[in-house]
Every structure is written in structure tokens, then in C-alpha cells.
Automatic annotation (TrEMBL):
It is found in: Cell envelope. Pfam families: DctP (PF03480). Keywords: Signal, Transport. GO terms for cellular component: outer membrane-bounded periplasmic space. GO terms for biological process: transmembrane transport. Its main location: other. This is C4-dicarboxylate transporter. Residues 1-22 form the signal peptide. The keyword tRNA-binding does not apply.
Length: 329
């Protein structure tokens, strides 16, 4: 009888763990957004490619919705070797490399294609070198998207309309200062705290790509959407340096290539969402305005010189690299 019970238990354990019993290594990916968000479309594509190309020798587990912590906590987990992969924006990493904040100056990038050109060239290589000094390996870049403003108080048509509005931003200095220069009372806050903060009136609004606004159901607490396009942000796909050094070279090649290939799929999802979600948000009752972006850009322009004064030639070079691949034709 005991043998039968033990056999049943072993079969149940096998069913529960499934692939992990056969896998040689397990790789965890942590994100802060909902499962159907473009970031997790990318995460699931990494999972599919890595497991397929390793013939099941690597199992990838994706944890969404801040299950493993907020962004800061997960970066620290990477640095301490307790989590394999996550991603954060370049400016968010300014906590460890301060000059990275300069990459989140408002209106630095004309559009998504401009950003892709910049990070696909010398800028992307130099950023990888910088972050690599802080316990992580940068494997590639995902698109975080073009950010727009929402709030519960008033329609935004220009800088004057932002005066007095408390707008949440990520904890990134130049990102925050961009919103201040645009006219808002910028308030740093973790993403997973944002919905409740808006619901309770702690902040009046926020700024994010359309995919974040839609998937996080911000239309339930914000009536107004302004297509300011003030920031196009890029996610750095990061792997724990401690754990990366323990990965077989052939597995490193598989993981690195999977990130690059998944980035194509992830960017396609961002573009698809940008094309379709505006009408969905309008159906949900959001009132959309299309402010003159040049008016906001003029307000933000002094931040370029501020960053050069603060960070010196490094920030100056990065800004020049970005401007050199701007296509205004």
C-alpha cells in the first residue's frame, strides 16, 4: 500500500513539474506588467525560442504582474544572482549609472524608428558597456514605446493646461524633470502602485504608452488622454552577470539570439497596439486631444544643456550620436 501511495505521489510530482525534470537549467524572467502586454509577448517569445532551440534543455519561466517584485527589486535580484532576466528603461538604470538618465530627456527621439537607429548603432554598444559594469549583462533592446499623458482633471492642449496637475513618473531624474519642464507637478512612484494612487486622488494622472494605459485599465480612473509623444523609451534586456557566467557558451548563444529575435516580435506588437488601442480607449470613454508637440519640446529643450553640464562629454557624445541618426526628411 505504501509503495502504491509513493508511486502515485511521484507521478503527481512529475506531472506538476513537467518539463523542469528534463531541463538542464531553469531561467526566470520577471516583468511588472500584465500578461497580454507587449513586454510579455516578448517574454513568451524568448521562452518559446530558447526552449525550442535548446531542445528542452533550458526551461524558461515567465513571471508577470510584479510577481517577483517591482523593477528596482528585480534589478537588485539580477545583481545579487537570484533572478536571471528582467528589463528596465535606460533612464531607470540611472540609479546605478547616473548619466543614463540623459537618455530620457523629452523629445530627444523624433519617433520609434529614430530610436531604433540610435540603439542599433554606437549608442547601443556604449550603453551595454556602461551597464555591464554593474552586475548585469545587456543582451538586447525591447521597445518600451512612445509615452502620452492621461489625467482625471482636464483636457491637455498645451503646457499651460498641465499647470498644477500631479502626474506620476517613473523614478528617473530626467524623465521626471521632463514632465516638470512641460508644466506638471511630477511625482515619482512605482508602476504597481499607480492605479490605486489615481483612484484615490493621490495623483491626478500619469504618462505611458497606449499599451500600458489600456492593459492597466487606466481609463477607469482617467478621463483625458493627450497624445504628447514626449518620450520614446527603450528597455534594456538584462541578465544577471553572476548567473550568465555560469551558463554554457552554447546556451549563451541561444539566449542572446532569442532576445534579438524576440525583439522583432515585441516591437511589432507595440506598433500594432499603437495602431489599434486609441480607438479602444475612446470607446471606453477617454477624451483624446492632440497637443502641439513643438510647444512642449521648446519647454524641454534646456534639459540637453543641463545634462551636458551635469555629466560632461559622455552625455554630450550620446546626444550627438542620437542627433546624427535623426531623419528629418
Amino acid at each position: 500500500m505504501k509503495l502504491k501511495v509513493l508511486s502515485v505521489a511521484l507521478l503527481a510530482a512529475t506531472a506538476m513539474t513537467g518539463q523542469s525534470l528534463a531541463a538542464e537549467m531553469v531561467m526566470k524572467i520577471g516583468t511588472v506588467v500584465s500578461g497580454d502586454h507587449p513586454e510579455n509577448v516578448g517574454a513568451r517569445e524568448i521562452k518559446r525560442l530558447v526552449e525550442e532551440r535548446s531542445n528542452g534543455d533550458i526551461e524558461v519561466r515567465v513571471f508577470t504582474d510584479s510577481q517577483l517584485g517591482n523593477q528596482r527589486e528585480m534589478v537588485e535580484q539580477l545583481r545579487s544572482g537570484t533572478l536571471e532576466m528582467t528589463w528596465v528603461t535606460t533612464g531607470f538604470f540611472g540609479s546605478w549609472v547616473p548619466e543614463m538618465g540623459a537618455l530620457e530627456i523629452g523629445y530627444l527621439f523624433k519617433d520609434r524608428e529614430h530610436s531604433f537607429r540610435a540603439f542599433g548603432g554606437e549608442l547601443g554598444l556604449e550603453v551595454a558597456d556602461k551597464v555591464g559594469e554593474h552586475g548585469v549583462e545587456l543582451l538586447g533592446y525591447f521597445e518600451a514605446g512612445m509615452r502620452h499623458l492621461t489625467n482625471s482633471k482636464a483636457a491637455i492642449n498645451g503646457p499651460d493646461d498641465l499647470q498644477g496637475l500631479k502626474i506620476r513618473t517613473p523614478k528617473s531624474t530626467y524623465h521626471l524633470r521632463t514632465l516638470e519642464m512641460m508644466g506638471a507637478n511630477a511625482t515619482p512612484m512605482a508602476f504597481n502602485e499607480l492605479y490605486t494612487a489615481m483612484e484615490q486622488g493621490v495623483v491626478d494622472g500619469q504618462e505611458n504608452p497606449l499599451s500600458n494605459i489600456y492593459n492597466a485599465k487606466f481609463s477607469e480612473v482617467n478621463d483625458h488622454l493627450a497624445l504628447t509623444g514626449h518620450l520614446h523609451l527603450t528597455h534594456m534586456v538584462l541578465y544577471s552577470e553572476q548567473l550568465w557566467d555560469q551558463v554554457k557558451p552554447e546556451y549563451q548563444d541561444i539566449i542572446r539570439q532569442a532576445v534579438l529575435d524576440a525583439a522583432v516580435v515585441q516591437r511589432e506588437k507595440v506598433a500594432s497596439d499603437d495602431a489599434s488601442l486609441l480607438s479602444e480607449l475612446e470607446k471606453e470613454g477617454m477624451q483624446v486631444t492632440r497637443p502641439d508637440r513643438d510647444a512642449f519640446a521648446a519647454k524641454v529643450a534646456p534639459l540637453r544643456e543641463d545634462a551636458i553640464k551635469e555629466f560632461g562629454d559622455g552625455a554630450k557624445r550620446w546626444i550627438e550620436l542620437i542627433d546624427s541618426v535623426r531623419d528629418d526628411g
